[in-house]
């Protein structure tokens, strides 16, 4: 059984009498433990798709089943539980709380996630134990993204959702962060979904889904994806 299934999912934004179909009858199945890249140009609908999968938004039409549960009909409270338990988020601009230390940022998830892992251990695994008492503004972009990886993993979700996770980093730092993210996802057995317009990230994925104008154009399984070290970043 797939861990994620989209059945004829559409998301239509309405303003006045104007309708914008950000996602248009999307069908897809994602399997557990895979590294999936959703690729497409700006405005294709990638973030809309990720927001629906993350329970940050609900579809206008269709059904989204995650881990055997239909999330398209959940109430706001039920969606909050879903976000706390099933999905971890990594965003382009880190979304750390500026007034909390690095350790406090990661520990925050203990308040919402029932199966949270040790914040200190996660910080150790991303190599930031020495920075646990620093504030986010005292860290580089790459370090802040490593904190957000530790935070997403500390929630202990089944699925990691990443929206342009290296988009705000220089190429060299981006590759290091990406390698860390993939190593941690594998070590902890997570399904990982990255949305990006970076074609290079697609080269190392198990599955590449191409989106354009709100539709899935192709879904390709790569039998032997390149390793991050083989890609000419
Ligand atoms: P991508 O992530 O691929 O750049 P998005 O999912 O952000 O694409 O956007 C897809 C389309 O939906 C775009 O045309 C965008 O302008 C529109 N859109 C996204 N969010 C909203 C919103 N909250 N209200 C109205 N239109 C939106």
Structure description:
This protein has 233 residues and is of the alpha/beta class. It has one domain: 3-Layer(aba) Sandwich (Rossmann fold). The protein has helices at 46-53, 76-85, 102-107, 119-125, 141-154, 171-187, 199-203, and strands spanning 4-15, 18-30, 35-39, 61-66, 69-70, 87-90, 159-163, 191-196, 207-212, 215-221. The strands form two sheets. The chain has a six-stranded mixed sheet, with helices on both faces. A hairpin with a 2-residue loop joins strand 9 (207-212) and strand 10 (215-221). The mean pLDDT is 95. Bound molecules: adenosine-5'-diphosphate. Adenosine-5'-diphosphate (ADP) is lined by residues 13, 20, 22, 40, 42-48.
Compact summary:
The protein is an alpha/beta fold and 233 residues long. Helices cover 29% and strands 28% of the residues. It has a single domain (4-221), classed as 3-Layer(aba) Sandwich (Rossmann fold), CATH 3.40.50.
């Amino acid at each position: 059984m797939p861990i994620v299934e989209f059945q004829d999912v559409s998301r239509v934004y309405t303003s006045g009498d104007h309708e914008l179909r950000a996602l248009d009858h999307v069908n897809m199945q994602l399997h557990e433990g895979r590294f999936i890249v959703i690729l497409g140009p700006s405005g294709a609908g990638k973030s809309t798709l990720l927001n629906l999968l993350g329970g940050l938004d609900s579809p206008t039409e269709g059904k989204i089943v995650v881990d055997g549960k239909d999330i398209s009909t959940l109430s706001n409270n039920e969606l909050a539980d879903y976000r706390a338990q099933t999905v971890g988020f990594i965003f382009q601009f880190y979304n750390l709380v500026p007034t909390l230390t690095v350790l406090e940022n990661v520990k925050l998830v203990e308040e919402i996630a029932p199966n949270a892992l040790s914040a200190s251990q996660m910080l150790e695994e991303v190599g930031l134990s020495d920075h646990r008492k620093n504030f986010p503004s005292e860290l580089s972009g790459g370090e802040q993204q490593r904190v957000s990886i530790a935070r997403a993993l500390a929630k202990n979700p089944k699925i990691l959702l990443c929206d342009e996770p290296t988009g705000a980093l220089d190429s060299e730092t981006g590759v290091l962060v990406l390698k860390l993210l993939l190593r941690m996802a594998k070590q902890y057995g997570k399904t990982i979904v990255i949305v990006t317009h970076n074609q290079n990230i697609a080269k190392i994925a198990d599955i590449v889904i191409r989106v354009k104008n709100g539709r899935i154009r192709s879904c390709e399984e790569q039998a032997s994806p390149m390793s991050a070290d083989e890609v000419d970043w």
